[in-house]
Amino acid sequence: MKRSYRDPVEAYLHRLARWAPPQERDELVAEARRHLHDAALRLERAGMNPRDARRAATRAFGPAWRIGLAARGVAIPLPVLPRQVGRALSRLRRPRR
Question: Is residue 56 included in any domain, yes or no?
Fold first, then answer.
């Protein structure tokens, strides 16, 4: 069953928690939460509406899977073609909570 998150930041943090290594999950998600909320607040002060600011903050932060894999010590070089990402991810076992 898929969860539906109305807040883009909370949806992002949920995805990040799924990819983060268990021993670092809480700290990584808490740090990401602080950065995302700060970035969204700056964008709101610059005139963006709150929902768009939160979306823009998550897009600027980068893909949750990339941050989670980096925390696991798995490096994925930039730029990476989508097909290559799909192949690489299919070879990795997706972490379970």
Answer: yes
pTM: predicted TM-score of the whole model, two decimal places: 0.71
Whether 35 is in a domain gets the answer: yes
3-state secondary structure the chain: CCCCCCCHHHHHHHHHHHHCCCCCHHHHHHHHHHHHHHHHHHHHHCCCCHHHHHHHHHHHHCCHHHHHHHHCCCCCCCCCCHHHHHHHHHHCCCCCC
Expressed as residue numbers, the domain containing 39 is 8-91
Tens digits of residue pLDDT in 24-63: 999 999 999 999 999 999 999 999 999 999 999 999 998 9
Q: Is residue 97 in a domain?
A: no
